[in-house]
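debug: dumping io for the single-chain case to check the tokenizer round-trip. Nothing else runs in this session.
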Amino acid sequence: PDMWNNKFGGCAGWADAAVIIPWTVYKSYGDVRILEEQYASMKAWVEYVRQQAGEDYLWKERHFHWGDWLSYHSDKPNYPGAHTEKDLIATAYYKYSTDILSKAARVLGKDKEAGDYEKLSANIKEAFYYEYMSASGRLVSHTQTAYALALSFGLVPDELIDKTAAYFAADIRLHKHLTTGFLGTPLLCSTLSAHGYDDLAFMLLNRKEYPGWLYPVTQGATTIWERWDTMKPDGSIIEGMNSFNHYAYGAIGEWLYNYVAGIAIDEKHPGYKHFFLAPHPGGGLTNAKAEINTVYGLASSAWELDGKEMTCKVTIPANTSATLILPQSAGITAKVCSLPQSKKGYNENYSSDDEELRFKLGAGTYQVTYTMK
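debug: decoded output
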């Protein structure tokens, strides 16, 4: 939104909040009124970008964009930084907001508009491929942010997804650290995990050197900084625009809740009416715990590792259900019991030869024990 009628209005990623926030609130609370009230402004934003992009479906830099703000920069001659082309970012968000708008239209029963925006999304995806991708799946901006956006927002053709994800992972292995800014960081670890690169996601999480989330901790930080290097190792502080308490890089919290602890919304049943519990240990962590106050009550997930023995304790609120998915569980037997245990309590053994073990649970608190592969 352009509050001051200047060049800083309508920037990709920032102004897309007009679409992203109502949809996120709807998913979190299941109250369709937020979409009813905001649909007109959601549509207005996508239509504005459509006007800017024109018939080639590419939102090229016709006005100011912040881009991947405060991404990693280096003074090494052979590695000048991690700049992602702003028109690539803007086009990616154009596709993402269009997808969200089409889903919101479906929820509201606007099937004709939903279909129109689905077609628009397909056109943007095709244009993105021809403008920004090679036939091998490599992006013209060979940066972690570009790959995270393309993979997370559904911009990569199905037949190239594995190759594009491999380019993404290769860049992280090469540099051994993140290079993302405000727009790439929230998607970084979730995209890696979604494509089978948990080892890299946890490596980035645990890194104590600059740039990384634990570097500020080594400097005594108790909040997330605006810059990866807000404070230098010698204690000096960057002058000018600088905050010691900034949200952007703290977006790693979503991955910690949704993936590591494993509490994830089921978009088909918003408001945690049904949700997923899929904990993922890794990175040397021996335990994790997270809880969310849903509209139905407290949902929680906690796990502990003792060697390969894993114990999970989960809570599912009243009038809801959850699907519990156990990781790395091929060929194992799991014991599931309700807490507190009673003669009428839930107490069963499950076994599976599949790659994962999943089962649906009703409201209550359960403990699951099994040996991981």
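debug: round-trip ok. Residues 19 and 37 are 12 Å apart (CA to CA).
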